Amino acid sequence: MMGNVAYLTLKHASTLAAVFVGLYAGLLGLFTTSFFQAHVVYLHKIQMTWFNDLDVPESFGFLRSQTTPFAIKSSAGGPLYAWHILPVELYRQHEAVLLAEPSGFASDITSRFAFKLLCDDPDVRLVIHMHGAAGTVGSGYRVPNYRALSAGQPMKIHVLTFDYRGFGRSPGTPSERGLCLDAILVVEWAMHVAGVPPSRILIFSQSLGTAVNLAVSEHFALQSPPIVFAGGILVASFLDVPTLVATYRVAGTIPIRSPLARFPLLFNYLSTFIKEKWLSKDRIAGYIRANEANKEKYQLTLIHAEDDYDIPSHHTEVVYWHAVNATMPRGITYEEFHEVRQHSRNDLGAAGSVMEWRTKNGLIREELLKTGLHDVIMGNPVITLAVMRILAAADPAFAIQ
């Protein structure tokens, strides 16, 4: 009797194992297709705005007419859905005028008073926000993130955020090239339509957005003449998609490809099927080399929480090494840099650690926090301080306005 029970138990266990292996093999097979890869990398069909209307920003906690929904038109692709968000003190000073205007989507944003406030102030600063995978401009922790971005100077710091193609109300299908073109279009709109010079623009990004940020920043740094912004902030960056997929776990528990790491030939073979690699480690190096060669002033801040289970903080540590390596003609190995890091990093205890790397032209700062997860960190004071640190360094007078 006991033997039969053991046999049946073993049989059921073997069946379940076979089913699991079959499902896992099927998942890996799907991952070799471009269609499935796009949905895994971008998660653009997951909007996470529930039953709220993006054209009614008040339903996300904004004041009436504080946020203007509008579209940035493109001659090459479809329009990009965007929000222009006023800082709260500036809103307070002009509340009566703003309340008298219609709220909601602006077919012509240039006719709105909020746009006038952005264009007419020679001391205005603009944070262009590039969000991560999944969701829309109104999803999750992005709304408190916008508040944190402008909190340091609530009279002067405007926020411009947008949905890439295929996300939210921006039509199209996401791709690496497409998202880069979208972000370039938004930056050009800010410079040429809103009239904000690059020296007063800061590009903030999180997760997938960090890869977009680096691609766009490198693109403009390689122009003739080069265009360099006040600075850039990368929160929860990653080396590249192949490396990210190798370590990624759904909800922090279910691995996608990490079980294959013990089979290098199979692992490397499957990596050849990844179409869009988002090589952030190469782009950050290209961006810094261009600025060093052109003797352009630049600032980058990399922030990551050690308890981030979506993208391990080790990614930012290695991205940071690639950035530092690009500043040195002979380079520095990761092992050598690890030794430098041990002596140069400022331990802040429960708050984490900070390291700065300065050259004659630039400053690259790494902040590793003990806590903050992948998204919660975006509404924390560390973001406000990072914005103000960059803007004040770019123009010391700005900090005392």
TrEMBL record:
SUPFAM superfamilies listed in its UniProt record: alpha/beta-Hydrolases (SSF53474)
InterPro entries in alphabetical order: AB_hydrolase_1, AB_hydrolase_fold
Keyword Transmembrane helix: yes
Protein's organism: Cladonia borealis
Regions annotated as coiled coil: none
Transmembrane annotation, as ranges: 12-36
Pfam families: Abhydrolase_6
Protein origin, superkingdom: Eukaryota
Full protein name: AB hydrolase-1 domain-containing protein
Domain named AB hydrolase-1: residues: 127-289
Keywords: Membrane, Transmembrane, Transmembrane helix
